[in-house]
Amino acid sequence: MKLAFKTFTALNTLALSLGLTHAALALDPATLYQRSSPAVVSISAPDGKASKYGSGFIADPRGFILTNYHVVGKNQRVAVKLANGSIYTGVVVSRSAQVDLALIQIRPKKTLPSLNIQGVPPRVGQKAYAIGDPRGLERSLSDGIISRIDRSGLIQFTATASFGSSGGPLLNEDGQVIGIVQGGNPGTNLNFAIPAAAINSLPGQRGLVAQQRQQIGHYTLASNLQFRQGNYQKMLAILNEGIRRYPNNALLYLNRGTAKTALRDYQGAKSDYSRSIQLQPTSLAYSNRAKVHAILKQQQQALEDFTQAIRINQGWGGSNLGAAFYSRGDLQARLGNTKSAIADFKAAAKFYQKIGNAERYRAALDRITLISTQ
Fold first, then answer.
1. Which region is the signal sequence (predicted)?
2. Do 227 and 171 belong to one domain?
């Protein structure tokens, strides 16, 4: 299965695209459900004269669905009901009784909503959400925490899971899949999920996590190429397609914000940077949004974002951190905050000197001199 601001560079972007980490800002449960539940499906599999029922989720918008092995059994075909009510015949293309996972393929006429898979293991104590069909109640949401992770990676959680929930996604607060619900005991905290990393154990597959990462990297690099060539509309089109397929990826929103900034769609850029920050806050996203705030004459918001960019400083080199101090200093100077401006330019000069950028180092010193003589 095959599966603007020029301060951001291809290296920044690629580094972020490979770092699938849990975000510090979470979605509220209502928003998480609204965005995630359309990708959750109901599954019915023949079981003698009766049928077995379970849940699953769309892991690839072209129609690949993950569920448990014990939901599909040895059947080659199962019935899959989507959130919009459409019913498809699904072909089981891969299965593993050992890890209790199965991969189903359907043939939709158009791409489907899908869920991103989190490559980083969850932590005990973090919030977790399960969406599935407990006792046939389609796409029910329950919440809880991760209560235990054993040596094999099996996840114990407190969100409710019962008959019919098996195969549904266990989500983190960003709506990313951290596990596949295996089952539970109603009225207890003994509910279990298979870790997302186990997906790579399905025979004949290269691993959905790796495939998603590769595909996101493709959109990232292709859009960066268009950016360097000044083809901002083409860059925007590439990122629109990427976000349609991966609606919970922070990096794609960050890049699209840059495309919209270059096209002077500042409100649209601000919205995309905000979404990127919500999914995965980074210094780069805060800094880019700060510059948009400044263009829109929203000076206080710009100051707050520059400050946040400097505070978290995730994955930045000295040049970008120096740029954040310099930009904030420039804004402070325009607002008449002389002491704060000088302090920021001094910090910028320090970073530029450290990385050997003589031109920017001198520019920061010149600004200090200019402000001091006014």
1. 1-26
2. no
User: Which residue matches tokens 């707050």?
Assistant: 304
pLDDT tens for residues 30-53?
A: 989 999 999 999 999 998 878 889
Is the pLDDT confidence value at 257 over 90? yes
Instruction: Tokens for 346, please give them.
Output: 């001094």
Q: Looking at 37, 42, 55, 100, which residue is catalytic?
A: 100
- What lies within 8 Å, CB to CB, of 20 at 6+ separation is 118, 119, 120, 176, 209, 213
Q: Which long-range contacts (CB under 8 A, 24 or more apart) does 85-89 make?
A: 88/63
- Write down how long the chain is: 374
Q: What is the dihedral of CA 157, 194, 16, 235, to 10 degrees?
A: -110
Sheet strands (E) in the chain: 40-47, 50-60, 64-67, 77-81, 87-96, 101-105, 127-132, 140-149, 155-157, 169-171, 177-184, 191-195
Q: Quote the number of domains for the chain.
A: 2
Q: Does a structural domain hold residue 75?
A: no
Inter-residue contact 84 to 180 (CB < 8 Å): no
Q: How distant is the alpha carbon of residue 211 from its chain centre?
A: 15
Choose, from 55, 162, 166, 223, the residue flagged as catalytic: 166
pLDDT-derived band at 81 (thresholds 50, 70, 90) equals very high
Global pTM reads 0.56
Please say whether the beta carbons of 78 and 69 come within 8 A. no
In 3D space, the residue among 80, 59, 55, 78 whose CA is nearest the CA of residue 137 turns out to be 55
Instruction: Give residue-wise pLDDT tens across range 275-312.
Output: 998 888 888 889 899 999 999 999 899 999 988 888 87
The H helix count followed by the E strand count for the chain is 12, 12
8 A C-beta contact, residue 193 and residue 99: no
- 3-state class (DSSP) for residue 298: coil
Say whether 133 is catalytic: no
Q: How far apart are CA 100 and CA 53, in angstroms?
A: 15
120: its two tokens: 């980083």
Q: Looking at 22, 44, 70, 143, which residue is catalytic?
A: 70
What residue numbers bound the domain in which 345 lies? 209-372
pLDDT digits (tens, 9 = 90+) for 330-340: 888 888 899 99
Residue 10, domain member (yes or no): no
70 is known as an active-site residue: yes
